[in-house]
Structures are given as structure tokens and as C-alpha cells.
Amino acid sequence: MSTFMPKAGEIDRKWYVIDAAGKPVGRVATLAADILRGKTKPIFAPHVDCGDHVIIVNCDKAVLTGGKLEKKIYYRHTGYIGHLKETKAGTLMKSKPTRVMELAVKGMVPNTTIGRAALTRLHLYAGAEHKHEAQKPEIWAM
After folding, report:
1. What distance in Å separates the CA atoms of residue 16 and residue 10, rounded to the nearest whole number?
2. Which residue from 27, 34, 60, 119 could staple onto 97, CB 3.0 to 4.6 Å apart?
3. Closest Cα partner for 105 from 48, 141, 51, 67?
4. Which helix or strand (DSSP H or E) is residue 103 part of?
5. Does residue 142 surpass a pLDDT of 80?
6. CB-count burial class (<10 Å; 0-12, 13-18, 19+) for 69
């Protein structure tokens, strides 16, 4: 009996909605990364992009546990010499709550072409409303 190898054209992509209200950012990001990679499917193969679309709503109501609001720092570089910018997680959660979730999920997918393609299927919204009702997304229960 041979091993099943999925082809790129055989992949059936579904849409899932994850509600992040009151849940830790890392738990939601881990689940989203698994769905984006396709690890929840029985046909998963690490060399094929077989993941689904993920919509995360209520990113502004997600929580950071412990003292991460004050202690966790996000760094970015402008490209100029000495221009390393830092932002605390609490500040970033107030101004751009979807960016915190995006960075968490981005750190959990591989840094390859498959991981970058998976991140294009991630849709983040700060509130409870999203614009993907036409795709008939299923609610993923955590």
C-alpha cells in the first residue's frame, strides 16, 4: 500500500471563524496556525499547502496573560542605521489589536513559501463583524 500524497489541485479549502473574545492570544494563534497549515486535516502533508482560510474576530477582546501587557516588547527596524523602534504590547493592543494577533500567528507558521502563502489566508478583525459571509464560514469551537 502506497502513501497518499495530496496534489495541489485536490485541496478543498474551507472557511472558519474563530472568536478571540476573552481567550489568550497564544491559544488562538496556535489554533489558527494549525488550520492555516492544514494540520487539522487527515490529508496533511508538510510539502503541500493544504490549509484553510481563517477569520479571527474580536481581536481587541483577546487577552495577554501574566505581565505581558507591560513586559512584552515588539521590535521593528525602519531600515536606517540606529532606528530600532520598540512598542510595548499594551500600547499595540490599544492602537492595533489585529497586529498583535498577526505577529503571533506569523511566528507560528514556517518561514517558507508555504508559510507565507498560508498567511495570505488569515483575515483579522478587531470587532465582531467580518465581510466574508458570502463564503459561508463555519464557526470553530475552542
Report:
1. 19
2. 60
3. 51
4. helix 97-106
5. no
6. middle
What are the grid coordinates assigned to 61, written together? 477582546
| Residue at 70: amino acid letter | E
How high is the mean pLDDT of the chain? 95
Measured distance between the N- and C-terminal CA atoms of the chain, rounded to whole angstroms: 36
- C-alpha cell at position 135: 463564503
- Which element (helix H / strand E) includes 18? strand 15-19
| pLDDT confidence of residue 4 | 83
Give residue-wise pLDDT tens across range 61-118: 999 999 999 999 999 999 999 999 999 999 999 999 999 999 999 999 999 999 999 9
Domain 14-64+97-139 has CATH 1.10.3720.10: no
Backbone angles phi, psi at 79, to 5 degrees: 110, -15
